[in-house]
Design brief:
The complex is a heterodimer of chains A (about 300) and B (about 300). Chain A has about 300 residues and is mainly α. Chain A has helices at about 5-20, 25-45, 45-50, 85-120, 125-140, 140-155, 155-165, 170-185, 185-195, 200-235, 245-255, 260-290. Chain B starts with a helix and ends with a helix. Classes of the chains: A mainly alpha (about 300), B mainly alpha (about 300). The interface between A and B is large, with 46 and 52 residues.
Chain lengths: ~300, ~300
């Protein structure tokens, strides 16, 4: 057998046993499965929704969940004041939450990572300028600025992403800068410099891979934080607008029926809670898995 | 020490200057406020007149200079919605937020510190696990949802507390508990890990070897050294409560704080009020951060003696 194939087979074996060890923790497995289910429902929401999430029949309004008195199996989690199926709307809401979470983390994560790499590698003036901006922005009322941006630009999906991205780059920059400063003192960076590698090659090919693990963990935690922020904005009416569906908006809509229709204020919040807990638990496991020395619980 | 204080004060100044710039840019991004202020059937000449009256025909830089010099003197103009000075509206709602945030923060610290210390001392115990769980739920539970749940069960069903508004102690309980959950979890966890770090240090072994009581070792020696990390974290959480986290809770319970004013200002396109509330909040957070920075010298003599 040619060595190349052997190496590939070995790699596969390592990857498989790694995956197995990752999920050996039952607790993590349960939440990873929940998370995958949410991702699946979000991805395929248009095909799997049992009813039209945006239009309902007023004859069906405020139906309780199937297991409650007066509920029917037609609407598993009941319906809202306009007769729309709550379960279908939760699935569409998952789509919004996850796309905002991922979108913002990709944008803010890329910007933050590049700025952090640059600041950490070059040091000096560049570093000082980037870090001062970062300090100032950390001292800002972030959520309020986010609310203002979303409100001023007009509340919709794209503008929420802008509002949250503006505020999301700093954590990525700060974390990777610290790592770069310690990595760049190591001999292999000196060697790369000595053989005449370009600066961008050293930063992105030699240094960045060493920080990739911790940046990925941070990305997972940030997705959780952004999902919460989106829900907050939508709850305040500064995010997704009716008749759209977002978990935060659904809670705001259900608020009027708090004493008559408990399911309207219960399930959207549970959806947020379960998603965020799952993300945090997976991130936490990822951290202790990738870096056994640092078994601290997640900082969000 | 003096240099340290001057440095921190300078930073507050820079943050406030940036806050003014950001607020100015944000409220000028919308395009022409004249369209919003005038009735729909207004003539072009009326719009031009108003633009000149408001100084909108001047270069942006001059407009900013004007805005900043008035803002420094506390003049943000009249709130379009309440028709009185915007700063006064903002300052009137600030004490309400402070009351809520103060109560929530106090509750969080009073619960979290003993819990974190006990969790560290009895590592791996049930109490330790409860602390970890509390930290996890603290960061994972949407505060507005928790507020709605408490309201639904304790107010609407059991009638133990009023559903919303501000009044006596009864009105404060639910919003404060709701707001306290997150900092409580975070601080408890920080206390735990800071205490674990300290309890592994040699001076703790020395203190024990001297025959000091375990309570004294833990509560005086270790806790005092863990204090910097704890105060940093608690201060950060306090800042975050002020920086918008209270807004959602205020909104749920119709608590007339400054966060709610921000949301109302956005809803009503009330830019003077929006500018005033955001600037006042930024200043409050800066002062909280300043106090936290200055309090380090209480715990760390190295900062005090530094010249």
């Amino acid at each position: 057998m040619p060595t190349e194939v052997l190496v590939r087979a070995d790699r596969l074996k390592v990857a498989l046993s790694g995956t197995r060890r990752f999920f050996a923790d039952r607790f993590t497995l349960v939440f990873a499965v929940i998370l995958l289910t949410i991702v699946f429902l979000a991805l395929f929401a248009p095909y799997v929704v049992p009813h039209d999430p945006f239009g309902g029949d007023l004859m069906d309004r405020l139906e309780p969940p199937a297991w409650s008195q007066g509920g029917s199996t037609r609407f598993l989690l009941g319906t809202d004041a306009q007769g729309r199926d709550l379960l279908s709307r939760l699935m569409v809401g998952a789509r919004v939450s996850l796309s905002v979470g991922l979108g913002v983390v990709v944008v803010a994560g890329t910007v933050g990572t590049v700025l952090g790499l640059v600041a950490g590698y070059f040091g000096g003036k560049v570093d000082q300028i980037i870090m001062r901006i970062l300090d100032i922005q950390f001292a800002f009322p972030g959520l309020l600025i986010g609310m203002t941006i979303a409100g001023v630009l007009g509340p919709n999906l794209r503008n929420i992403m802008i509002a949250l991205s503006v505020n999301g780059w700093m954590v990525f920059a700060r974390l990777i800068r610290g790592m770069v400063m310690s990595i760049k003192a190591r001999p292999f960076v000196e060697a790369a410099e000595a053989v005449g590698c370009s600066k961008s090659r050293i930063i992105f090919v030699h240094i960045f891979p060493h920080a990739l693990a911790s940046q990925s963990i941070l990305a997972v935690i940030e997705v959780a934080r952004i999902i919460m922020a989106e829900a907050s904005l939508s709850f305040l009416g500064l995010g997704i607008q009716p008749p759209g569906a977002s978990w935060g908006l659904m809670l705001a809509e259900g608020r009027e029926y708090i004493s008559t229709a408990w399911w309207l204020v219960t399930f959207p919040g549970l959806a947020i809670l379960v998603t965020i807990i799952s993300l945090n638990i997976v991130a936490n496991r990822l951290r202790s898995f990738l870096d056994p020395l640092q078994q601290r619980v997640v900082r969000v | 020490m003096r240099r340290y204080i001057i440095g921190r004060l300078l930073f507050v100044f820079v943050v406030m200057a940036s806050a003014l710039i950001v607020v100015f840019i944000l409220t000028h991004m919308v395009g022409d406020p004249v369209d919003l202020l005038l009735p729909l059937d207004a003539h072009q000449e009326q719009a031009d007149q108003m633009r000149i009256a408001l100084g909108l025909d001047r270069p942006l830089w001059e407009q900013f200079k004007d805005f900043a010099s008035r803002a420094i003197r506390g003049d943000f103009g009249n709130s379009l919605w309440q028709r009185r000075p915007a700063l006064r509206v903002a300052l009137e709602s600030l004490p309400n937020t402070m009351k809520l945030v103060g109560a929530a923060f106090l509750l969080a610290v009073v619960m979290a510190v003993p819990l974190g210390v006990l969790a560290a001392v009895k590592q791996g115990s049930t109490l330790d696990k409860i602390t970890s769980l509390l930290a996890l739920q603290g960061v994972s539970t949407p505060p507005f949802w928790l507020g709605l749940m408490l309201m639904m069960i304790l107010s609407a069903k059991l009638h133990w507390f009023p559903t919303s508004g501000m009044g006596g102690f009864q009105h404060l309980v639910l919003p404060a508990v709701t707001l306290a959950m997150r900092p409580m979890g975070r601080i408890a966890q920080m206390v735990r890990s800071a205490m674990l770090d300290q309890l592994g240090e040699l001076y703790v072994t020395t203190a024990r070897a001297k025959g000091l009581s375990e309570t004294r070792v833990v509560m005086v020696h270790a806790l005092k050294n863990a204090a910097i990390a704890i105060v940093t974290m608690a201060g950060w959480e306090l800042g975050r409560l002020m920086a918008g986290y209270s807004a959602v809770v205020e909104w749920v319970f119709s608590w007339p704080g400054i966060g709610m004013m921000v949301v109302k200002a956005i809803d009503n396109w009330d830019f003077p009020l929006l500018q005033a509330t955001v600037v006042v909040t930024a200043l409050t957070i800066s002062l909280v951060n300043l106090l936290v920075d200055l309090s380090y010298s209480l715990f760390d003599p190295r900062i005090r003696s530094e010249n």
